[in-house]
């Protein structure tokens, strides 16, 4: 078969011939129809994701849409390196296959499922959001943040505050369901003031940025809450601005704040499968929108080096 192949960390994958995968017991050989180029795919291919074990060569790709040998159209996710989806065929554990409903096309599903799943898991499985609650999305301008805004609306959030830097993507967010937008593109004091005004009393924060912007947001919100004992669930999902934060003990003492992460490990494989099917079942009716750019898999090297505008997802098609 042909596949995208990484032979050295730090270099883009190259399109080349590669041995066909041989399914192990309990696996199914899936013909890949489309695979998204998500940040998770890049960090896996760079060997920097927390699940990476350094094996090379590897085929990148964390998930995708494909056809099983009996012709079922499925979504599959949670692939483990070195066996990724940026190939003509991939071996997938049968229990990781998610039946896809009609009415959603391959490229949209391949582009949307990873960012949408991050939001679905964070909002429903980790924060256990209830209708009428208020949500702040930090990093709302990216693909995942845009999904978090849309899914928070879908789940009946009362007020959704969307924070991000990119002005073009920020301007789009009210159309996706945000009640307020906050620009993070300013000095710390200005950003803190904006967040204190717009999001002081939120119930749930879905955080894709972490690092310094999270430190600023946390300090601002913790100091501005009308009722410090009102519970705040802060769900860490991504670390686009940095892998660590400094967490002052006083913040935990003065605010009823509940930190949790959402990702591979903090969500069990069984819950992950349930969540995938829940989300897939909602795709035809949830009205989720995503901007995708489709490229042939043979152009994977160019796709790797092309910086897409914020909120646009590249999908590779074998
Ligand atoms: N745990 C999970 O289950 C899971 C699943 C999927 C994704 N993720 C993670 O979620 C994160 C976002 O994914 P995505 O698909 O939305 O990526 P994306 O489409 O590339 O968007 C990246 C986002 O990060 C923001 N950003 C980048 N650097 C920043 C900085 N220094 N300060 C503030 N904001 C910054 C961007 O904002 P601007 O463009 O406005 O600057 C944009 O909103 C990634 O870390 C990804 O790995 C986690």
UniProtKB/TrEMBL annotation:
Coiled-coil ranges from the UniProt annotation: none
Domain Enoyl reductase (ER) positions: 10-317
SMART domains for this protein: PKS_ER
Classification via Gene3D superfamilies: Medium-chain alcohol dehydrogenases, catalytic domain, NAD(P)-binding Rossmann-like Domain
Listed name of the protein: Enoyl reductase (ER) domain-containing protein
Origin species: Streptomyces varsoviensis
Source organism phylogeny: Bacteria, Bacillati, Actinomycetota, Actinomycetes, Kitasatosporales
